[in-house]
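Budget justification aside, the reviewers requested a transparent look at the raw inputs and outputs of the sequence design task funded under Objective 1. We therefore reproduce one unedited record. The lines immediately below are the structure tokens for a 187-residue chain.
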């Protein structure tokens, strides 16, 4: 993805989770990180140094595209989710505007994908970030990589656009409201 000019380096929020801390799901029904999705990715992201995260995702039978191999869209979802979790460290709510994925190696079922992501720069509401997914370990061979542009939004983005049924359930859940509002305390 062509990098924008005049990017500012990202600033880790003072209340961001400490390096090594698990970030936890942002929404229980999220396909990427939620515990409530049987065939979801159940991706668990952990805060790193600066504005970076690491995450792991194990490819299951439900994630196949070709026999015994992960579907590319599922791998893109794992990268998207990992990149999205960087927003916990900025304490900013943001959605993916653009995601560019390179599929470098096939990823077999039962493989654990070791992901890492970092924010490379910020300009206004635009957050530029990059991620890799490796095989065999955190320093293993690169199987997938992505560059992304996230756009900062208000929590109202979800309330306005989400289906009423799910928004009502989320707003009736005090834990969910707390998680969403925690992002709004921006300096
Ligand atoms: C209380 C209950 C609440 C419940 C909520 C629950 C939880 C909330 C908490 C956290 C959850 C947060 C996120 C989810 C996390 C992880 C999941 C993974 C992430 C995703 O999976 S998330 C889903 C997929 N995602 C979308 O569903 C976005 C659909 N989309 C839109 O909603 C709009 O499109 C939007 C908002 C993106 C922008 O719209 P907009 O009107 O606000 O702003 P605008 O268009 O002016 O763009 C501003 C500047 O970005 C540039 N720009 C925009 N898009 C670009 C592109 N594609 N390429 C290059 N540049 C682009 C413009 O060129 C301009 O640049 P400039 O300022 O320089 O002119």
């Amino acid at each position: 993805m062509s990098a924008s000019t005049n990017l500012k380096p990202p600033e880790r929020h003072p209340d961001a989770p400490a390096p090594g801390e698990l970030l936890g799901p942002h929404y229980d029904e999220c396909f990427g990180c939620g515990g409530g999705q049987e065939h979801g990715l159940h991706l668990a992201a952990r805060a790193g140094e600066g504005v970076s995260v690491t995450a792991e995702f194990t490819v299951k039978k439900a994630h196949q595209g070709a026999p015994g191999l992960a579907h590319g869209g599922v791998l893109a979802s794992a990268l998207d989710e990992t990149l999205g979790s960087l927003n916990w460290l900025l304490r900013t709510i943001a959605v993916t505007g653009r995601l560019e994925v390179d599929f470098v190696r096939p990823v077999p079922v039962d493989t654990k994908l070791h992901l890492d992501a970092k924010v490379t720069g910020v300009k206004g509401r635009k957050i530029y970030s990059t991620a890799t997914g490796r095989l065999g370990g955190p320093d293993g061979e690169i199987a997938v990589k992505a560059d992304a542009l996230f756009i900062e939004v208000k929590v109202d983005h979800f309330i306005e656009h989400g289906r009423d049924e799910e928004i009502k359930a989320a707003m009736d859940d005090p834990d969910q409201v707390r998680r969403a509002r925690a992002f709004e305390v921006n300096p």
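The beta strands are 44-47, 52-58, 94-103, 112-123, 126-135, 141-152. The chain has a mean pLDDT of 94. Computational costs for records of this kind are itemized in the attached budget.
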